[in-house]
Every structure is written in structure tokens, then in C-alpha cells.
Design a protein that fits this description.
7 strands; about 25% helix; about 15% strand
């Protein structure tokens, strides 16, 4: 399968090993930690990435994202949500390595970036981008999304707004599991979603 993981860790070689013959890609924002993990596991397919967000801006981003048309799903299945080169949406990870956009991901795991001090990037953009990728899927099947640390208010708030409670199919401890259908299989997007109030749900 195609597996995209937000974050590098000591568990990264395990996820790589569990997906033989598949594509497993890791995204990490901390240069020092990136170098440590890559030195110990040079076979991992990993990219060093940058985030535009800060955890202490989470509330403002949450309250303002609907004012940006570039952050909202389109009215038709043919125009779900744009990520690549979408600089106008502050939640879009618009400058990731090309292979991230060129693959359709079967599973996304969000365990990064850091989200435990005010200046940290927080996971707001990772959650929004994972949602946009799931919405835009053209291939068969739903997109599985796993989000860690849902005991923290920002992760919980953004998960409920973008990944949506109706797509949550499981969870344990601090981990939630969502299965998100592409917008092309939802019929009328406005009717199937929360409309203007909760456009992704």
C-alpha cells in the first residue's frame, strides 16, 4: 500500500518493514531529529519539511479558515480541495516534495509535527492536508487516517472539524482512526457535508 507518515521515530523502521513492496514515506520537521533517524536508518524514504503554522495560532486558524475559499472544498466532485501550490490557504502544506502529491495515499498516520509548546508547528496543517488528500482521491477505496494525541485540545478540535466524527471508525487510548471516502463517491458535496457551518463534515 501507499503509506504517508507525518513524523520520524524509533518506530519508523517497523512501519517500513510492515509495508514490503509498498511505498512508505515519512515527513519530519526537526532537522536534528531527522539527521539522527536517517543516520540510524538510511534506508527510510524521508523528507525534511517546513510548516507555516504555530500551535499558539491554532484558535485563530480554526476561526478564520472559512474566510479563505482556497481552504474550502469545491462545489463539485471534480474540484475537491487543492493542496499543491495553494499558498493562499494557511493550513495547506503547499510545498511538500513532489512525490507526496503524485501518489494517492491509502493510509496516513499523523504523529507530527510537534504540538506541545506554543512555538511548535502544531498538527493543524497536517490534519487539514490529510483530509484534503482523502477528499481528492481518484482511486478505489477509502483513505485510512490515524491521528495520535487526541487527548490534546488542538488535535481533537481539528480532527472533529476536518476528519469528522461520522468518518471515525475506531480508536484506542490517544489514537483515533478515520476512514474517509473520496468526494467523488459522496454525491452532492454540499448536501453530504455540514454545509457552511462545517464544510468538511
Amino acid at each position: 500500500m501507499r503509506l504517508l507518515v507525518f513524523g520520524l521515530g524509533y518506530d519508523s523502521p517497523l512501519w517500513h518493514a510492515l509495508n514490503p513492496g509498498g511505498v512508505t514515506v515519512f515527513l519530519e520537521e526537526d532537522p536534528e531529529w531527522y539527521n539522527i533517524v536517517r543516520t540510524e536508518s538510511p534506508f527510510l524514504r524521508a523528507h525534511l519539511v517546513q510548516y507555516r503554522t504555530r500551535l499558539d495560532h491554532a484558535d485563530a486558524l480554526f476561526e478564520s479558515y472559512k474566510r479563505f475559499n482556497s481552504c474550502l472544498p469545491g462545489e463539485a466532485a471534480e474540484s475537491p480541495v487543492r493542496i499543491r501550490r495553494n499558498e493562499d490557504c494557511p493550513l495547506a502544506l503547499h510545498n511538500l516534495p513532489p512525490e507526496v502529491y503524485e501518489n494517492e495515499w491509502d493510509m496516513l498516520m499523523i504523529d507530527a509535527p510537534k504540538g506541545y509548546f506554543p512555538e511548535a508547528p502544531g498538527r493543524m496543517a497536517a490534519i487539514w492536508t490529510a483530509t484534503a488528500m482523502a477528499w481528492s482521491r481518484r482511486g478505489e477505496g477509502d483513505t485510512d487516517v490515524f491521528l495520535h494525541d487526541v487527548d490534546r485540545p488542538v488535535e481533537k478540535m481539528f480532527a472533529e472539524e476536518f476528519l469528522c466524527e461520522r468518518f471515525r471508525v475506531g480508536g484506542t487510548g490517544r489514537l483515533w482512526y478515520f476512514s474517509i471516502p473520496p468526494v467523488s463517491r459522496r454525491g452532492n458535496t454540499t448536501a453530504a457535508s455540514g454545509g457552511a457551518e462545517r464544510p468538511f463534515c
